[in-house]
Structure formats: C-alpha cells, structure tokens
Design goal:
The protein is an alpha/beta fold. The protein folds into two domains: about 1-220, P-loop containing nucleotide triphosphate hydrolases (Rossmann fold, 3-Layer(aba) Sandwich), CATH 3.40.50; about 225-290, 2-Layer Sandwich (Alpha-Beta Plaits), CATH 3.30.70. Helices cover about 35% and strands about 30% of the residues. The chain is elongated.
C-alpha cells in the first residue's frame, strides 16, 4: 500500500531525508521511530501529499502522487502531530466540514460523519464545541477527521502526544481496532505503545533508515546480548563465582533475590547456567532469558545511525 524508494528531501542546505526506502503492506500496523529531527514528520508529510520529495519514488496504493495526486490524497487519512481544529465548531459540524473539504458527495456526507463518530466513540460529544473537549477527546476528533471518507491508509504522526496514561490506552485501542482492514503507519515517542501495537517498526536517524523489522529481527541485527535471570537455592557468593566462570558471561549482577547474567548472543548461557547449578546440587527456582525491549534496540540503532558518515 505504501512504497518508498530512495526518498530524499532537502530544505536549502538541510538534507532532512537521505535516501530512505521501505514498504508497508496492506493491513499492516507499522511504527515509525526516530529521535527529534530524524526526518519522521517530513517523510509523513511527503506520503500525505503535503509537499513533494526532492528525489526518489513514492507509491500510495499503487499510484504515483506526482501523476495522480488527488487519488493518492483520497487514499490517505492524515493526522498531523499538532492537528488543527476549529475550537468554536461543534464536533459533528467540524466533521461535516472535513467531509466537504474531502469532496465527499453531498448524499454521503451525513452517513460518513455518523460512521466516524461511532468508530471513534464521539457520539456522546457530537454536539459539543471542539474547544471544550479534553485532550483525549480532541485526539479522537483528529482520528475521526483522518478516517472521514474511509481511506485505506492512515498516516498518524504522534497520535498520543500530550495524553495521560489512561488517554494513551484509549487511543491505542482505537488504533489497534483500525488495523487489518486498513494500513496504519504511525510515529510515536512512546516505545511501549509501538511495541504493543506494531507488527513491524522502521527506525530512522539523521534522515537515514537505520533499522526495519520486528523487535526480534532488529535485536538480532544489532547483535544483542543475552540477559538471563536465575533464582537458585545456593550460597550467594559461590553461585556468583560459578556463574561468572561460564563461557561467554560478561557480567553477573544481583537484582533482588535473582542473579542476572549478561552475555554475548552466541553463548547458550541459560543452558550452561542450569547445568552448572544442577551439577552443584543447587535447586533452581527460576531460569529464563529476557528479550531486549524495543527501547534498548531503538537506542542502539539510533546511536549507531547517528554516527557521522565517512
């Protein structure tokens, strides 16, 4: 549904996007991550048809935005980071205005507005002025305007920015419900939300793509270190000494009642630790390997990608 090849965008001497390429398939929910100034919003604005790329190719639902801009814009529902609202308009009136601006046929507008009010849980506030709504409900209105016209692609730039934890969960659930029937491409600084929602993530830094794939694929790419948690009935000093002697173990630490081992990815530390404890007759209470979370992967990719190119 979205295809980008060698995309660049410059503003004078500033190269905001530097030759990135990726593809988002129909029905996927894909997260777009990067630090401030990485080129996320610029890329999203290009995909939404707000301005053209300097070079490279973009395809939206199989069409070229340069040759068929109106069809591409109809295929995309865009929710910018700071969505513009008319605070004095009532919610339903604002959405009718959006439907008119999107050139929905007059006979379809009322039905389209009723549909997005229901999808976004706004029926109870349809008659209220947008400016009187909480931040969470204003974000729902932003999603509703993006959904107006039922586009197959949603591009959401920081849809949970400025929300409290309860509101974040509400918006997350809305976005999750939109997946499957639509392609959802969204950015966020809340990495736990991206990890909970997305099938894949795309990471950019300094305008370049530095990682793409599932959390597991990215962790393997960056050469993840193992983290093994062990709870065992045995003398603490002797257990720590035995664990530190295992091949590949780089660090042994105590966290609460557990030992935490860090080791190179190539070593089978969990098995070796279990065998070492069993050989000494110490009872194992818990033995598990922890996957690195998305935040650890993101920081590593961004740090590596932010290094100046030779």
């Amino acid at each position: 549904m979205i295809e980008v090849r060698d995309l660049t965008k410059t503003f004078g001497a500033v190269e905001a996007v530097r030759g990135i390429s990726f593809r988002v398939e129909a029905g996927e929910i894909v997260g777009f991550l990067g630090p401030n100034g990485a080129g996320k919003t610029t890329t999203m604005r290009i995909l939404a048809g707000i301005f053209p790329p300097t070079s490279g190719e973009v395809r939206i639902a199989g069409r070229d935005p340069a040759r068929d801009p109106l069809a591409c814009r109809r295929a995309v529902g865009y929710f910018p980071e700071y969505a513009p609202f008319y605070p004095d308009l009532r919610v339903a009136g604002y959405l009718r205005f959006v439907a008119r601006m999107k050139r929905l046929p007059r006979a379809e507008r009322a039905g389209a507005v009723a549909q997005v009010l229901a999808w976004c849980g706004l029926e109870g506030v349809a008659g209220r002025r947008v400016g009187t709504l909480s931040k969470g409900y204003r974000q729902r209105v932003g999603l509703a305007q993006a959904l107006c016209g039922n586009p197959p692609i949603l591009i959401l730039d920081e849809p949970t920015i400025g929300l409290d934890p309860e509101q974040v969960v509400e918006i997350r659930d809305l976005v999750r419900a939109l997946g499957g029937s639509r392609t959802v491409f969204f950015s966020s600084h809340i990495l736990s939300e991206v990890e909970a929602l997305c099938e894949r993530v795309i990471v950019v830094a300094r305008g370049r793509l530095v990682g793409e794939g599932t959390a597991r694929e990215l962790s393997e790419r960056v050469g993840r270190r193992q983290r093994v948690v062990l709870r065992v009935d045995g003398p603490a000093e002797a257990v720590a000494t035995a664990l530190a002697a295992l091949p590949g173990v780089e660090r042994v630490a105590r966290e609460a009642a557990a030992f935490v081992l860090e080791a190179a990815a190539s070593a089978d530390v969990a098995r070796a630790a279990g065998e070492a404890m069993a050989a000494r007759g110490w009872t194992i209470r818990e033995l598990r390997e922890e996957m690195p979370d998305l935040e650890q992967i993101f920081l590593r990719l961004v740090r590596d990608g932010a290094r100046p190119q030779a």
